[in-house]
Amino acid sequence: MEPSLSEYEACQVSSWYLTFSCAFPERRKGLTFQTRVLDVPKSFREYLEEDGVRLPPNTQPSSCLSCKPAKQVSGDDDDDDYDYDYWSENSSDQEDDENTTPASQLSHDSQFMELTDQMTVAIKDFGGFVIPKLNWSSPKDAKWINEGTLKCQTAGDVFLLLKSSDFVSSDLELLSKQPLPIQLVLRKWANLHESQEFRCFVKDKRLVAVTQRHADQYFEHLPQEKDELLAFLEHFLVESVLERFAAGKVPSYVVDVYVDRKDRCWLVDFNVWGERTDSLLFSWDELHGWGNDKPNEIRVVETEKEVRPHPLNNFRAPVDTAHLASITGGSPESFQVFMDLCQTPGESDGVCANL
C-alpha cells in the first residue's frame, strides 16, 4: 500500500529535525546531526530536470573522478590555470538566445544565486563539509562522480551530485504528485563507521525488527553483540523516539540510527513504511505480516558467505569513464572528448553531454 501524504510529510527532514535537534535532558544535546533546510526557488527544480550535467554559473566542483588538470593532481597549488570551466555553463559560447539553456540563465536569477550563497555559508558553518539531500533521498547513487563520497566542499559539489542522481529524480517525481515544496537539505559531514549503522522497523509504535545498515559487509563483532544491541536500540526508541516522532500520529515507519563509540545513539534519517524503503535483511512480506504477539528480532550478516551484493552496484562509474580518467592523468580536455562521444544522436551542443 502506498504511504499516505502524512507519512511522506512526517519523514521529511524538515518535519522531524527540530523535534530531535533540541537538547535532551539525558544528553544535554540533540539526538541528530546538525542540519540546515533551505527553501528553493522554482528555477531550482527546472535546473535539476534539465538534460545533461552542467553546473550553474560561478560554481565549481572540488573534485570529479580526478577530472582536474594534471597540475593540481601533482600538487601544484596555483589555481589560475585550472580549467574548472569544463563543468560551468559559462564555458559554452551561446550563439543566440535560442541556444541559451536554463543553467546559463541562472546568473540572472537572484533567488537561485541567493540559494547558492546560502549553500556556501552552510558549508562554512558546518566546518567545511556537508552531505546533501532533497526532501527524502540523498544522491548516494551518484557518489561515483564525486570520488566515491557524498562529502561536499563546495556548492558545485552539491549541484554535481544532485544533477547526476536517479534517487534525486525519484524525489522530484514523487513531489510532482504531492502538495509539498522541494527542499534542499545540507547535513554536517560525519565520518560514520558502517558497522555501527542500523535500520529499525517500527510498526504500530513498536520496534519489530532491526538490521545492520550495510548488508554487503561482514563485521565480525556484530553476531556476538546483536542481542545486546537489540535491547539497547529498543530502549532508546521507547525512551526518545516512539511518542515524539510526528507527535505519535504516524505509527509505522523506518528509522536509521548510528551507535557511536560512547554508546550514544544518533538519529540519521526517517523513511516511510513500505516497499519504497529497502528492507535489507528482512522482506516486506514478513514485515507487513508481523503480528503483535511476535517478538522483535535483529538480523546481521553472520558469516562472510552471507554477504549480499551492494545495492548500488548498478550505479557505479561507467567503466570507460574510470579507465579514461586513469590513462589521461585526469586531463579535463581528454575527458571532454570522451563525454562528447556519449551524446545522444542528434544532440548539437558539444559540451552538454549526458552522464
Note the main attributes of this structure.
alpha+beta, single chain, 5-stranded mixed beta sheet, 355 residues
Describe the structure.
This protein is α+β, with helices and mostly antiparallel strands. The protein is 31% helix and 13% strand. It contains twelve helices and eight strands. The protein has helices at residues 5-11, 13-21, 42-49, 70-73, 102-105, 110-125, 155-163, 166-175, 222-240, 284-288, 319-328, 332-341; strands at 35-39, 130-133, 183-188, 197-203, 206-212, 253-259, 265-272, 297-299. The protein has a five-stranded mixed sheet. Strands 1-3-2 form a three-stranded antiparallel sheet, sandwiched between helices. Strand 4 (197-203) and strand 5 (206-212) form a beta hairpin. The longest helix is centred in the middle third of the chain and has 19 residues, at 222-240. It is globular and about 60 Å long. Residues 64-87, 90-99 and 342-355 have low confidence and may be disordered.
Short description:
The chain is globular.
By helix and strand content, what is the structural category?
Answer: alpha+beta
Give the SSE string.
HHEHHHHEHHEEEHEEHEHH
Total number of β-strand segments? 8
Radius of gyration: 22 Å
How many strands, what sense, and barrel or not for the largest sheet? 5 strands, mixed
General shape? globular
The averaged pLDDT comes out at 82
Tally of DSSP helical segments = 12
Record the strand order, biggest sheet: 7-6-4-5-8
Give the terminus-to-terminus CA distance: 34 Å
In percent, how helical is the residue content? 25-40%
